[in-house]
Fold this sequence. Notes:
The protein is of the alpha+beta class. 31% of the residues lie in helices and 22% in strands. It is built from 16 helices and 35 strands. A hairpin with a 7-residue loop joins strand 34 and strand 35 (665-668). It starts with a strand and ends in a 12-residue tail after the last helix.
Amino acid sequence: xxxxxxxxxxxxxxxxxxxxxxxxxxxxxxxxxxxxxxxxxxxxxxxxxxxxxxxxxxxxxxxxxxxxxxxxxxxxxxxxxxxxxxxxxxxxxxxxxxxxxxxxxxxxxxxxxxxxxxxxxxxxxxxxxxxxxxxxxxxxxxxxxxxxxxxxxxxxxxxxxxxxxxxxxxxxxxxxxxxxxxxxxxxxxxxxxxxxxxxxxxxxxxxxxxxxxxxxxxxxxxxxxxxxxxxxxxxxxxxxxxxxxxxxxxxxxxxxxxxxxxxxxxxxxxxxxxxxxxxxxxxxxxxxxxxxxxxxxxxxxxxxxxxxxxxxxxxxxxxxxxxxxxxxxxxxxxxxxxxxxxxxxxxxxxxxxxxxxxxxxxxxxxxxxxxxxxxxxxxxxxxxxxxxxxxxxxxxxxxxxxxxxxxxxxxxxxxxxxxxxxxxxxxxxxxxxxxxxxxxxxxxxxxxxxxxxxxxxxxxxxxxxxxxxxxxxxxxxxxxxxxxxxxxxxxxxxxxxxxxxxxxxxxxxxxxxxxxxxxxxxxxxxxxxxxxxxxxxxxxxxxxxxxxxxxxxxxxxxxxxxxxxxxxxxxxxxxxxxxxxxxxxxxxxxxxxxxxxxxxxxxxxxxxxxxxxxxxxxxxxxxxxxxxxxxxxxxxxxxxxxxxxxxxxxxxxxxxxxxxxxxxxxxxxxxxxxxxxxxxxxxxxxxxxxxxxxxxxxxxxxxxxxxxxxxxxxxxxxxxxxxx
Length: 724
């Protein structure tokens, strides 16, 4: 009866379970497609699935589709076999189907549904007087098999049954939640909810699932199906029973949310096809023929076995979007992709704890794929893999990810220069950082080298509570203050410095100068440092820079580089500097660019935004209705822009990727920011509808846009004991 407590003796352990009645909304309706990972109704005469997240095709033997549109077992041991993979979520799920036939005779026993992981199976078994959801070890765990009802059983939850009719369809429902160690089993509306011991050490997805038989049928009394038993209306939800019921009770989604979620699914589906060797992606792809490239130039096109870890939008960033999509949509396929990329980074990590910026991958092969085997700090080559590992560790608790992340954090700490900076890359042999041109212990601001290092050290403090990481952040702040160039003619930062904190050459087009881009990164770092510390020196340095840029700006625009001594605009090519306010020099430089004269066309750094973000102490608001409305205002416009500009493949294609003569032409970036915009919009919409909890997941952050670092630590980023 309802509310009664049942006790099952499982391997000597007494486990309680409570009987209840299935929700009528759930019992009487199909599960909406947005919650499904797999569905097969067999109305079209085919044994294949109607809907799946992975392969739809059915294998097996001894089954036919009956005239009434159901599956019938035609011989003993017959079964319908499907791939597991992403069709069934190992963390949590709900399986529902109908059963008819001789299996419902009182003394008959038969496995109705079975799905197999590496170390255990999860089976729905009809016993003599009950139906059970059983967790069973792959190998026998009792030496006295003849005296034990189920010698592989680890645990089970059962619902009692009485007299059943063999000519009637009965609906069987089973659900599991590995984190809660909970299971539900039901026949029609009569259900039982109880503790279910499920191994948590198995990291692989389900290999397959069967309808009508057991995965491990050879020595199992119940493993072989009986002739004439029928199955119909198989549905597998991404969620456990209680969450499935909660989601089904919500009002229908509005059109914008449906469009956004379908748009994100289309993008993620296309990018999934481009992933190579379960490792990652290239930086840029041509369209529509999907040739991968290291960057925007034709001379950088690569074979398909090259995986990028470069340009702050490499494989780790793409994989993080999949993990974020999993948090938002509950689709195990997305987590599976993110975890496999994270596993690649664990395998690819050097003994020192670092990563290269390009890899060549193959069967059992992970090797350098670039001309220079450099472990760059530029372009997030170290930080993004670390953030991805921290993110998936937060989602899974897998210690291998934590171990690799910690090793990377130690590498960062070792590589910090004596002046508090980080270099372009680190020389392991001589234990010294090196600039782009090989100078020892030179500081790098260009391409986020300093920004990433400051953020990584902050994250490592939060993970370890070891103040050596916070001390590293303090040293970095002192370097940035000393590196500011303010001589009455200019005020800002260069891209790169030598070990005397003097501006120096980087690449052949990056002269020692006031760099708009370097200044932008430096100002972003000052905002972070002020939020962490409240030290007014960081704010003063930013305000002084703002005054100079506003002074030299023309309608809010500026050149990319300025001479340090004179403040005149300059550009460089092949290590030669050209003054752009000199007619002859400007014309000479323009000749290298099809005669296009350089103009002040860059926006000056967004000082208004920086100043608005300079708050201390940082107080994070609760996500109430008011906060959600504010989030919606922030995410709606870019989110709708993203979903309204996708092409048929869910991509955002540039008709000419990079306006250079060496351009690859039409192309797109897997790490496109518009996918992130779309996911952030979905995040807010789903929170508003209570489809997901109102928490910070990393995509939305109350003090500035979320990014890779906030995936690793979604909240309390600036809560550090700076003054202690």
